[in-house]
Structures are given as C-alpha cells and as structure tokens.
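Attaching the record inline, Q. Sequence:
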Amino acid sequence: MKPDTFTKIMLVVIAILLAANLLGGFFSTKPAVADKGDVGRYQIAAWAAQSGSYAHHSGYYIVDTVTGKVVASKAEIHTSGK
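Structure, as predicted:
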C-alpha cells in the first residue's frame, strides 16, 4: 500500500493541536474577578398581554437585586381605536 501524504500531514496537525490543548491547561491565567461596583445590580423585565381583539396591556419593571426594591415600573393599555 502506498502511504498517503495528505493523511500523514493531517494526523501531524491534529497531534500538534491536541498537544497544544494539553499544554495550555498547565499555563493558566488569573481567574476572573467580579466588579465591586453597581454593574449588574439591576434587573429589568418587560411583559405584554392581549385582552380582547382590540386592546393589549404592556409594561416593565426594574428591580434592585441588592435591596429587592422596585426602582421603576410602568404599565400601559393600548387600543386600536375601533
């Protein structure tokens, strides 16, 4: 059987990539550190619901995840005018 050069090259490339992946685990960087500021402190949720064929309700609220208080909220009723 004649040796296939392309197969040998691909096997060498795969072996190099696997070795690089293995060695990359030994050289780790610093772990990620969370920011101590207000980043990520608030959570927003929006909602909408249809009530009938000509109207729907929608709104949102923003919650402070540290204190649990609702910071802002709004609800509206939209009609098609028919």
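The mean pLDDT is 84. The longest strand covers residues 55-64.

More tomorrow.
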